[in-house]
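> forwarded from #structure-qc
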């Protein structure tokens, strides 16, 4: 005899998923607040992209282009790609979710790394599959650990390169070694959200690897260096068969028209991008040196944030520093959920915020930077 339920119940596994908690935004009682918790660019969006966004307001009664043709063409032109291999979405988060929805199910496994982006685990579990964690080495993706974690149930592998919240990366030679070691039916997802910031000769975001393999995809975002986080613009570059599968289940109008217009203009304004990258590189170096000078440990970063590690001493731990900084209007990101209970992640902010954090942490540590 069946038992009648008294209320709707999610399918098994959904309530086991830990809700994603974004970085805090407010510091009660503080007049001037600097939000350095979400890796947003301090330079904002390209003025040309802002104008394109404003211009789109005259046609809000119309549905957007369901194929995001203008945006795909712009991305393809800048990166030298075939637009047929590009799919745009409501942030790269949507595209990561689509990959799991299409390629995972109960009984399958998806591999993530020890300090990887929390959304990977959420999406794997949301598809009814099981997340498998591969250890990292020195806060960096470990290819051997990933390959050792592969089983007959593995269907997908997620790596962020550069990593978040670590800011570390692995060279393209390691990406190729990872792909070569995976079964041909396993999809390797290269999340290159911070690729524009990397200035290393041995780094490649994933375009070359995707172009030469049938089981690799690369995701990118406009939320970081392009400054369009509010519009949620992401894209994926993938083999035609994977693009076709994702297109069959995505929403028919998954992007809004202002986002398409602004994104198409933003990616073509590469001089603005280079200005943002140069500003970021200067402050990554300055902040790292300053924090190390006051006795803190910083994981070397190639992205637009730094991971700061605090002493395991009463009154000097990350929770103490977080409270101290917040009281002065500087909001950093606690990263306990990423496996760093005694660390804070700081996004590169405007000059006055960066200098303010240096001064505040010098006071906190009892040392002058």
């Amino acid at each position: 005899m069946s038992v009648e339920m008294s209320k709707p119940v999610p399918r098994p596994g959904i309530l086991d998923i830990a809700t994603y908690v974004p970085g805090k935004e407010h510091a009660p009682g503080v007049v001037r607040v600097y939000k350095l918790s979400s890796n947003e660019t301090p330079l904002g969006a390209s003025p040309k992209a802002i104008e394109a966004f404003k211009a789109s307001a005259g046609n809000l009664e119309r549905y957007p282009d369901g194929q995001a043709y203008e945006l795909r063409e712009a991305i393809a032109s800048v990166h030298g790609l075939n637009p047929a291999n590009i799919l745009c979405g409501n942030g790269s988060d949507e595209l990561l979710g689509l990959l799991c929805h299409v390629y995972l199910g109960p009984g399958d496994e998806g591999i993530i790394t020890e300090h990887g982006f929390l959304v990977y685990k959420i999406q794997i579990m949301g598809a009814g599959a099981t997340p498998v964690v591969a250890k990292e080495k020195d806060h960096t993706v470990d290819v051997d650990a990933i390959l050792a974690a592969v089983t007959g149930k593995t269907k997908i592998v997620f790596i962020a390169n550069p990593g978040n919240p670590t800011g570390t990366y692995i060279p393209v030679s390691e990406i190729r070694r990872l792909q070569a070691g995976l079964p041909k039916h396993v999809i390797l997802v290269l999340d290159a959200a911070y690729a524009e910031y990397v200035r290393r000769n041995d780094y490649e975001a994933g375009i070359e690897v995707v172009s030469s393999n049938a089981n690799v995809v690369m995701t990118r975002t406009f939320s970081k260096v392009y400054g369009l986080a509010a519009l949620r613009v992401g894209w994926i570059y993938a083999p035609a068969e994977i693009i076709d599968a994702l297109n069959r289940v995505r929403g028919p109008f998954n992007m809004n028209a202002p986002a398409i217009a602004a994104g198409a203009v933003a990616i073509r304004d590469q001089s603005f991008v280079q200005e943002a990258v140069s500003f970021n590189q200067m402050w990554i170096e300055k902040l790292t040196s300053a924090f190390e000078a006051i006795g803190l440990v910083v994981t070397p970063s190639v992205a637009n944030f730094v991971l700061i590690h605090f002493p395991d001493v009463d009154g000097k731990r990350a929770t103490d520093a977080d409270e101290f900084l917040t009281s002065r209007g500087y909001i950093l990101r606690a990263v306990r959920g990423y496996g760093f209970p005694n660390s804070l992640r700081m996004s590169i902010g405007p000059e006055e915020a960066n200098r303010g954090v240096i001064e505040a942490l010098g006071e906190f540590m009892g040392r002058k930077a």
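QC bot note: The two ends are 72 Å apart (CA to CA). The first strand starts at residue 34 and ends at 35.
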